[in-house]
Write a structure and sequence with these properties.
Blueprint (H helix, E strand, L loop, with lengths): L4 E7 L6 H14 L3 E6 L2 H4 L2 H5 L1 E4 L2 E3 H7 L4 H14 L2 E6 L2 H8 L6 E3 L7 H10 L3 E4 L5 H14 L3 E6 L14 H9 L3 E5 L6 H8 L4 E7 L13 E2 L3 H15 L11 H7 L5
Length: 279
């Protein structure tokens, strides 16, 4: 069993502050994650004017527009993110919520793309991502098997390599709702690698079970502090706990072993002592 690919989902937990994002990127690298991920939206393409004008209190104002715009980075800030990730040698990408955002992110030539669960119904975006041909991780929250069949067909038709990520889109998710037996089910149904994208509050228990069931990638939201502003903070791992998470997850393959039952050298002294029969 190989080590799962570990993605630290910063998402929008940076609250529009480059320095916060930079710290989370550094903490992810130091902890041993393989990649970090952000989210990118072209606000006027993703949301209607009516939605954007509705009231919403936030650090940036009193409307949805002000809140959404406050969470977006500028081109200059993305340039800094790209340079910083390259400098410390950690992969990065961003889940695009529209075609313009996809073009924007692809200009940085990320090693992979990511489809967020809300975008599974956006067939045009799915086709655009699959046409690029890069490895794509696809979260499967809020979806039916019929819907996933359509998504998989798009990527298989295009010849784009992809990996589904079992996901429950409740923030935060109760562990009893994880339904991790979907991992082997999805692998058998589609014949592809299956990962897990989690929104639970526990540190590592669910992810360890996911790895035991064959998950080849893991994605967890991260934050500097769960008490910070933001809808995703409560379902995130605080960066001070990331090393513990990675250590536990990376121990899973060796704990599972190869399934071959044999007498180990470390057992021989105990065998010699304890298998003696007194006649």
């Amino acid at each position: 069993m190989t080590q799962p690919f570990l993605i630290a989902e910063i998402g929008i937990n940076h609250n529009g502050d480059f320095e916060l994002a930079k710290q989370m990127i550094k903490d992810s690298k130091d902890a041993g994650f393989d990649a970090i991920k952000l989210q990118k939206r072209t606000i006027d393409l993703v949301y209607t004017e009516e939605d954007l004008n509705t009231p919403r209190e936030s650090p940036w104002g009193t409307t949805q527009r002000e809140q959404k715009e406050g969470l977006e980075f500028t081109k200059e800030e993305y340039d800094k993110i790209n340079n910083f990730c390259n400098d410390i040698n950690i992969q990065w990408s961003a889940s695009a919520w529209d075609t313009e955002s996809l073009k924007f992110i692809e200009a940085y030539n990320p090693s992979f793309h990511k489809i967020a669960s809300p975008m599974l119904g956006n067939k045009a975006l799915l086709r655009d991502v699959s046409s690029i041909g890069k490895l794509t991780y696809i979260s499967t929250g809020m979806s039916t098997l019929d819907e996933l069949d359509e998504v998989v067909e798009i990527f298989k038709t295009s010849g784009c390599k992809f990996e589904l990520m079992h996901c429950n889109s409740t923030y935060p998710m109760k562990v009893e709702d994880a339904n991790l037996n979907c991992i082997p089910m999805l692998r058998e149904r589609y014949g592809v690698n299956i990962g897990y994208s989690g929104h639970e509050t526990c540190l590592v228990t669910v992810c360890l079970v996911a790895v035991a069931l064959g998950a080849t990638s893991l994605e967890r939201h991260i934050t500097l502090d769960r008490s910070m502003y933001g809808s995703d903070q409560s379902a995130s791992i605080e960066t001070k706990k990331l090393k513990d998470f990675v250590t536990a997850v990376k121990s899973a393959p060796s704990i599972l072993g190869n399934g071959e039952k044999k007498l180990l050298d470390t057992e021989k002294p105990a065998r010699e002592k304890l298998r003696k029969v007194v006649k």
